TrEMBL record:
Superkingdom: Bacteria
Keyword Nucleus: no
This protein's UniProt keywords: Hydrolase
GO molecular function, one term: triacylglycerol lipase activity
Lineage of producing organism: Bacteria, Pseudomonadati, Pseudomonadota, Gammaproteobacteria, Moraxellales
Name of protein: Hydrolase
Gene3D superfamilies (UniProt xref): alpha/beta hydrolase
């Protein structure tokens, strides 16, 4: 680990320490690390508009207890990491969705998922790590695929959670779930924003397993920590302007486990199955009752799945 970095205790998670890393491309990332420095490292890459707290503490602690060092971070444009200023023309995301469903690239986004994968690679270098295990969720799973394909020496093995490779003619994201994710609250009032976040969790989450009280508490933490809706839109444009990862998947030769929820209404299970089919030798696990989230009820099983995959 880079000895020049200064760490302090995380105000939200007692077993994690946090720091800020300036990458060689000028991006600054907020990073949190937990576990023993001598244990193998798991890098967690989260999805669209999702701060580090979207990786549940229970999930991180479970991986640490199974003998891993865990790193989670805010992607660019979200949380406490760099915000990207972009003065280009306003893009129509709805029209771009048509090309996206065909696996085609769009133009005009301030950055793509390839740039975000480079952030991950540079962060691995900045932390003086050699190879890491990677778990990518949703958009983070797309970034993880690019990272494994384009920076293969930095990745030891790969875990992908409710993600896609954006190949042509996959089942389209359900409109209700998609628009809840990229939609706006009724006002910029704190209560309206927290209420909107709760509705997003309830709409994309595992049916019957979203605890309203716990989710409200998490939503409040997220709002107090950072609120930057422009970053959510720019990350969404990054997805739309990346194009199909199908050919890239064929270049991945790391041991790969793809996990998907049978009740995922944002990215239906066909997306995860397509990823597993495209990556040579990848294994696929479908979890009944799980949606597009990591509910506490599934944490022991999920963390055990990934820990076993990385060990074996």
């Amino acid at each position: 680990m880079n000895s020049a970095l200064k760490f302090k205790d995380s105000p939200y998670t007692p077993f994690m320490q946090e720091t800020r890393i300036t990458l060689s491309n000028g991006i600054e990332l907020h990073v949190e690390i937990g576990g023993k420095s001598t244990d193998p490292t798991i890098l967690l890459i989260m999805g669209l508009g999702a701060q580090v707290l979207f990786w549940p503490d229970f999930f991180c602690k479970s991986l640490i207890d199974q003998g891993y060092r865990v790193i989670r971070f805010d992607n660019r444009d979200i949380g406490l990491s760099s915000k990207i200023k972009h003065d280009g023309p306003k893009l129509n995301a709805i029209k771009m969705m048509g090309r996206f469903t065909l696996g085609l690239k769009n133009e005009g986004a301030p950055y793509t998922l390839y740039d975000m994968a480079e952030d991950c690679a540079l962060m691995i270098d900045a932390l003086s790590l050699e190879k890491v295990h990677v778990i990518g969720a949703s958009m983070g799973g797309m970034i993880a695929q690019i990272l494994a394909a384009q920076y293969p020496t930095k990745v030891q093995s790969l875990g992908l959670l409710f993600t896609s490779n954006i190949q042509p003619f996959l089942p389209i994201p359900r409109p209700k779930q998609l628009f809840s994710l990229i939609g706006k609250p009724k006002s910029r009032d704190e209560n309206a924003i927290i209420d909107h976040t709760l509705k997003v969790f309830q709409t994309i989450g595992s049916p019957g397993l979203v605890n309203p009280l716990e989710t409200m508490q998490t939503a409040k933490k997220l709002y107090e920590r950072s609120y930057y809706p422009k970053g959510v839109l720019q990350q969404f444009l990054a997805i739309l302007c990346t194009g199909s990862l199908l050919q890239l998947d064929k270049q991945i030769h790391h041991p790969t486990l793809v996990v998907h929820g049978a009740c995922d209404r944002l990215l239906p299970p066909g997306h995860g199955k397509a990823v597993a089919k495209a990556i040579p030798g990848a294994k696929f696990e479908l979890i009944e009752g799980m949606g597009h989230d990591i509910p506490p009820q599934f944490v022991p099983y999920l963390s055990g799945l990934f820990a076993h995959h990385f060990t074996s």
